[in-house]
Amino acid sequence: MDAIIENLPVFLDGFRNTLGLLGLAGVGALVLGVFIAALRISPVASFRGFATAYTEIVRNTPLTLVLFFCAFLLPYLQFSPGYFPLAVIGLTVYTSPFVAEALRAGVNGVHVGQAEAARSVGLTFGQTLTYVIMPQAVRMVIPPLINVFIALTKNTSVAGAFFVFELFGAARKITNDRGDQVIAILLAVAAFYLLITITLGLIAGRVEKKVAVLR
Amino acid sequence: MSLSVLYDAPGPKARMRSRAISVVGIILIFGALVLLVLALGAPKTSANGSVQPGLWDASRWNVFTDVQVWRSLGQGVLATLAMAGVAAAIALPLGVLFSFGRASDNPLIRVPSTVVLEFVRGMPVLLMMLFILLVFSTGSFWAGVAALAVYNGAIIGEALRAGIKSLPRGQREAGLAIGLTPISTRMRIEFPQAFRQMLPIIIAQLVVLLKDTSLAFVVGYSELLRVGVKNLPDFFGNRYSFSFFMVVLAIYLAMNLSLSWLARVIARRTGSKGRAVTPDAPSTPANPLLAHPRALGEQSEGGNSP
């Protein structure tokens, strides 16, 4: 237990960096994911094909490989803004297709009758989207999106293996110093992760319940 | 088939415009790709004035004429597949066990298995690997296998539980009514149906498992990633690292895409039933916004479990 108390600043330092990775990569993945999803449902065939290929390729590449590319090969190609931004780039790219797929599933989930009803009362394309489709799609998309962010939280740990000092890095450092209390230290790190993931899970559950009533 | 209910059917002018945009799009995308390839291939002058050959230069790729390289890569692939195979073989029964525990009527079984499941699902696989490696000192192979098996077992267990829950209540009632015990109702009536429905999700999760074997790289297991992007470039020299990266990427994509393709085939064969119960994606009866026909049927690919 004393290993945790005396190393608390190190834990908090790691926790802050994990939150930083989560926040920055989360926002980045959301922006990129919306863009990819828009390409994916656009009427232009070539954009659709590009977005599909991007989604399939990135989704089937291991995160470790993506982060390896960012941490080692981008500096080798003379692009080196530091390991933290590189990890953010890697996590953003890796998470974006999952965001895009969640968005697409949400838009798909709106019943066709909704659009038909809106059109038949004379709403234009823009009105149909903004007043009828989008309000429903956004609500439905939030729980799966939160699941994506929960996965992202866990994925930030991989950045710890590529020179970013976050919770996993903190775990490695502290277990190196205090080999006698490995179990307590790792449980403490797990508690920090669970603090984020369980909170997000509760929010997702609550939103889901609300949506279920509305549907 | 009407394209979309959102706007009126396009006339000749609109169709022309859409085709023009498509062509421009193709040119833009291909132009960007060609520029990228050329930029990567251009020779670079480093800070001390020495000129490095471009990334597509033969001197960066001649290493692949060496049979030993391919043998090492093959060993890496085998190590990856071995870890994924053993982990999957443990994860599947574990998932079944978890789903039974969580769907149990007895709170003494249900509550602890719920707690364990939530704990395992909320923790990074990498942390679990490190934990098992340090606490049980199992060696990197079994640390990786154990962490992957427990984590994916939990996810598969949740999927199966959702499958059992989505069955009509009459199934269980009928089983009990003809005199089966609760356990044998679950084993012989509910579970086979849930498993069939959830098969696409389970296979998608196995793709995730195969991808996640690369995490064992961090705890020191010599699988494809460590062999391909660490050991081989260390041995043959840094100038090959990009080439090795590309080859490893191609191998991973080939493995994962073929498994994903299998998942899609099975999803199609189990039919619309398999799609309706996808736990994350909302059920999709129809598709108003997507004009292209491929939109449906790709739903059940487990897109929400990165």
TrEMBL record, chain A:
Any one Gene Ontology molecular-function term assigned to this protein's record: transmembrane transporter activity
Pfam families for this protein: BPD_transp_1
Keywords, comma-separated and alphabetical: Amino-acid transport, Cell membrane, Membrane, Transmembrane, Transmembrane helix, Transport
Transmembrane residue ranges: 20-39, 60-77, 148-170, 182-205
Major localization listed first in the record, in broad terms: membrane
Domain ABC transmembrane type-1 intervals: 15-204
GO cellular component, as recorded: ATP-binding cassette (ABC) transporter complex
Superkingdom of this protein's organism: Bacteria
Listed name of the protein: Amino acid ABC transporter permease
UniProtKB/TrEMBL annotation, chain B:
Membrane topology type: Multi-pass membrane protein
Keyword presence, Transmembrane helix: yes
UniProtKB keywords: Cell membrane, Membrane, Transmembrane, Transmembrane helix, Transport
This protein's record includes keyword Ion transport: no
Gene3D superfamilies membership: MetI-like
Subcellular location: Cell membrane
MF annotations from Gene Ontology: transmembrane transporter activity
Region (Disordered) location: 274-306
Protein name listed in UniProt: Amino acid ABC transporter permease
